[in-house]
What does this fold into?
Amino acid sequence: MDMTEAAKQRHSVRSFLPRGLDKDVQGALEERIRMLNSESGLNIQLVLNEPKAFGTSLLAHYGKFENANNYIVLAGKKGKDLQEKCGYYGEDLVLFAQTLGLNTCWVALTYKKIKGAYSLEDGEKVALVIAIGYGKTAGKPHRSKTFADVAKAENPPEWFVRGVEGALLAPTAVNQQKFKFISEGNKVKALAGTGFYTDIDLGIAKYHFELFAGKENFDWA
It folds into this structure.
């Protein structure tokens, strides 16, 4: 399974099997995280066999998580671009995990920060986390907006259409899909809407757009 196929098959999963990650899978994830941290300047961390974040709070109970004992922490230097960067690089990990046979769920609120489970440098903060493991199910698709809802273009090139269709597969907070892609020749403008976590959503959607459109075909405006 490649990353585009993973994007088509991946759906949010909150209930996991009570098992740890296979050693080869863990190693592949940790190597991917090292690569992305080097590229992005983020401080992404993999937390394993830690049941408290999703097992001891009312928020976690509200989120209806089961056996969510492993998660990815998305953190970095405080700044206006932190959330978008965490969305972009976090989605790379979400789709990569899917190719490894894992399931995931983006989580912004319904978890508890556990002291000692991960470490932060001065000036860093956690943007959100990703629950990860072997899902009890593969999850279910959700209703999606249309091309016309999220794109503005006249006679768009094929790669732009592919990119927008890929972006519509991207997970967003409460399935709001509040993003917009505007075609400007060989440049594309991507805009976040208003609402909770729309900057994170934009980062995720931009990753999908690049994946399906092909980064060689355009530049971000």
Summary: The radius of gyration is 17 Å. Residues 62 and 110 are 7 Å apart (CA to CA). The domain at 147-215 is CATH 3.40.109.30 (NADH Oxidase).
